[in-house]
Predict the 3D structure of the following.
Amino acid sequence: MDLLRSKKFISAVIAALIAGVASFYGIEPEQVALLISPFLVYIGGQGLADIGKEKVKAENDISGQ
C-alpha cells in the first residue's frame, strides 16, 4: 500500500503511460524521451535524496537517538 502513495512510483507510472500512449500514436522516440525525461530526473533525484535520509536514519538508530 505504501508503494501506491510513493511519489517516485506515481512518477514512474505516469512516465510509462506517456511512453505507451506515445508509441500507440506513433510519436517519435526522441519526442517521447523529451516528454518523460523530467519524470525520470525527478525519480533519480528523489532516489538520491532518499539515500541521504536512510543514512541519517541508520546513524541515529546506531547512536540510540
